[in-house]
Amino acid sequence: MIRIKSIIQYALFLVFLSGSMIYAVTASFSSSTGGADEDETCQVTINFDAPAWGSVTYDVSGTSTATAYGAGGYHDYNLSSNTLDFTGEESYTLNLNVYNDNRYEEDETIVLNLVSGNNITIGSPSTITFTIDSEDAPPTVEWRASSSSQTEGQNRAIYVDVDEDGSDVGETATINWTITNVSASSSDHAVSTSGQFTFSEMNSSKYFGIVQMLMVWMKIMKHSPLLLVVIPTAL
User: Fold this and answer.
1) Where are the domains of the chain?
2) pLDDT digit string (tens) for 107-150?
3) How do 25-29 and 120-122 pair as beta strands?
4) Phi, psi of 22 (to 5 degrees)
């Protein structure tokens, strides 16, 4: 009986040994690259070279340029680092939800790594770089009002707004402006004859102040001229 029990124990040990060492399962991504447009649910596949019994841990690399959901402000995707358990699967699909952030920006990347395995060996490729194609058009700007008036000697803020029906500002953008057809001297309006608005991420408007202005034509370079008439009210 003792001999039979020893044989059974030895046989069980060999089964364990064959499953965890001799026939170690290897996990890898199906590809090292991937991509999709915004507002899509995409799939990333992990393949095994045999039925997998164990777990695999993956993470989202800090080299990713896309912003994860919950990080504040705009977000590009919803996926976080995790450990996956397997009970005989030969492949596994990660669902990667990509959002439309309505921002004009460069293409962004999500980098995923297979970090470690329990009873599963990490093979190659162990990293996939997933590219999100930015499809948003450049934002457009417009004067908040086509004309304005103010009593001489007082300040008036003149606003330029990002069109809310278009894309938001996703990366730093500049708009050049000039004052032309001036019927007042520089001492009347106390503002430069040209300048530049700088819009940073999430900026929706910019302005400058005009003092004691009579009448001014303004245009935004590279856009159709827009007339802005500032006429002082009677004192």
Assistant:
1) 23-133, 141-231
2) 889 999 999 999 999 999 999 998 988 777 777 787 887 777 76
3) parallel
4) -65, -40
